[in-house]
C-alpha cells in the first residue's frame, strides 16, 4: 500500500513541475525607459518627415515612397537588416515635399564602414541638379582614420556652405550613430557621434531658414555626382570620390533641430533595438 502511495505522489509532483514555467529573470526586470521614452518612434514624431529602416526594403515609411536600387543589398543592421553598400552601388529616392521645403533639420543614421581607401565615402545627399554639391551632402573625407575621422557637410543656401569636422575618433569598423542638425534660428550646425556632441559651430553665410533650389533625388551610398548618370549637370564622376562599401541603417530626417537630449535618447534607444 505504501509503495502505491509513493508512486502516486511522485506522479503528482512530476505533473505539477511539468506545468510550471521556467523562471525567467528578465520578465521581472523594469521596462526600458530612457529619458521617458521606450521606443525611438516616440521622439519628436510630429517632426519626423522621412524614415528609411532598410529592413529588407527601400521604403520611406513616412511618405511611402520607394527607392530605386543600383547594386546594393541587405545585411545585418543595428536594428533588423541594413543597406549593404558596394563599389558602384547606391540607392536613389524621390524626396517628399516636406523634405524639399526644410528650413531646419536633423539627420540621424547608423553607419558601419571601413575608412576610405579609394575616395570619399558618400553617406547622404539631397541632390541639386545644377550645382557641384547637393543641397545637403554628407561624406567622409579622404585620409580619414580611426584617430582622425574627417566629416564634411555641404548645405546649399544661396550657394554652397561647408561645415568640416576633423579629429573624430573611432568612426570606422563598427556600428556608430551619426547625427547632424541645423537650426535656422541660431544658424548653428551640430554633429553628434553615438549621441554625444563632437562639434558645433556656424558657417559664414549660413543663417536663417534654408531655401533649397533645383532639388533632385535623394542619394544613399555615394555623393550626387558619382551615380550613373550624375544627378547634377555641375559635374560628372570624379576620381577622388567613391562609394560606401559598408552598411547604412535607420536613416531619419526631422524638420527641426532636435535637442541634444533627444539625439542622445534616440541613439541609446536604437542601440537597444527600440
TrEMBL record:
- The chain positions of domain Pentraxin (PTX) read 76-274
Organism, as annotated = Pedobacter sp. KACC 23697
Alphabetically, which GO biological process terms does the record hold?
Answer: carbohydrate metabolic process
Please identify the protein, giving its name as recorded: LamG domain-containing protein
A GO MF annotation of the entry reads: hydrolase activity, hydrolyzing O-glycosyl compounds
Recorded superkingdom = Bacteria
Amino acid at each position: 500500500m505504501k509503495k502505491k502511495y509513493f508512486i502516486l505522489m511522485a506522479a503528482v509532483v512530476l505533473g505539477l513541475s511539468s506545468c510550471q514555467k521556467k523562471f525567467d529573470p528578465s520578465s521581472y526586470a523594469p521596462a526600458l525607459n530612457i529619458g521617458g521614452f521606450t521606443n525611438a518612434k516616440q521622439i519628436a514624431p510630429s517632426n519626423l518627415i522621412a524614415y528609411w529602416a532598410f529592413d529588407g526594403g527601400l521604403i520611406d515609411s513616412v511618405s511611402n515612397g520607394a527607392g530605386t536600387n543600383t547594386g546594393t543589398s541587405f545585411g545585418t543592421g543595428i536594428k533588423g537588416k541594413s543597406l549593404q553598400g558596394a563599389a558602384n552601388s547606391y540607392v536613389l529616392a524621390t524626396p517628399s515635399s516636406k523634405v524639399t521645403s526644410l528650413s531646419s533639420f536633423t539627420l540621424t543614421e547608423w553607419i558601419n564602414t571601413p575608412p576610405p581607401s579609394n575616395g570619399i565615402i558618400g553617406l547622404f545627399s539631397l541632390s541639386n541638379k545644377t550645382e557641384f554639391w547637393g543641397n545637403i551632402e554628407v561624406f567622409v573625407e579622404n585620409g580619414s582614420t580611426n584617430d582622425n575621422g574627417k566629416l564634411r557637410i555641404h548645405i546649399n543656401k544661396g550657394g554652397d556652405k561647408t561645415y568640416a569636422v576633423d579629429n573624430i575618433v573611432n568612426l570606422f569598423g563598427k556600428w556608430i550613430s551619426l547625427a547632424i542638425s541645423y537650426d535656422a534660428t541660431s544658424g548653428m550646425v551640430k554633429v553628434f557621434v553615438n549621441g554625444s556632441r563632437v562639434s558645433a559651430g556656424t558657417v559664414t553665410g549660413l543663417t536663417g531658414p534654408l531655401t533649397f533650389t533645383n532639388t533632385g533625388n535623394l542619394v544613399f551610398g555615394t555623393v550626387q555626382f558619382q551615380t550613373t548618370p550624375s544627378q547634377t549637370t555641375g559635374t560628372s564622376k570624379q576620381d577622388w570620390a567613391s562609394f560606401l562599401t559598408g552598411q547604412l541603417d535607420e536613416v531619419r530626417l526631422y524638420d527641426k533641430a532636435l535637442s541634444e537630449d533627444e539625439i542622445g535618447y534616440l541613439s541609446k534607444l536604437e542601440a537597444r533595438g527600440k
